[in-house]
Amino acid sequence: MLGVRHKTLADYGAVSEPVAREMAEGALRQSQADIAISVSGIAGPGGSEFKPEGRVCFAMASAHGTQSETQDFGALGRAAVRQAALSCLKLNPCASQLSPLIKPGALFSPKIYANFE
Asked: How far apart are CA 53 and CA 84, in angstroms?
């Protein structure tokens, strides 16, 4: 359903903005939705030097384009990383108001998950 290209997965790995973008764009294409949001991350335990535990890639696709952003929540543990990611989605003006006009790089605020540190 999502239509993520094998090359994108091979080149960037599942936890990456390019994959998150293709996930959101594919979900939008295959649905009757006005907006699609995707999340891919490493909640833990685990991670690597290049993709640490707590890294979460978000993307939002709409008729106005696709935006993506990566947040590093840190090694908070699986439950806390998941909660932090959900909090971003709940408090994100883009997701909560379905506004396609938000500026790139402003999808999520570090203040949203400060209480998980």
From this structure: 13
Decide if 16 is inside a domain: yes
Q: Kindly report whether the global pTM for this prediction surpasses the value 0.85.
A: no
pLDDT in tens, 15-61: 999 999 999 999 999 998 888 888 888 887 888 888 988 898 988 88
Alpha-carbon gap, residue 91 to 2, rounded angstroms: 25
Whole-number Å distance between alpha carbons of 12 and 28: 21
Q: Are strands 55-62 and 65-72 parallel, antiparallel or unpaired?
A: antiparallel
Number of separate domains in the chain: 1
**CATH code of the domain covering residue 108:** 3.90.950.20
The answer to whether the beta carbons of residues 15 and 40 sit under 8 Å apart is: yes
**Full residue range of the structural domain in which residue 70 is found:** 6-116
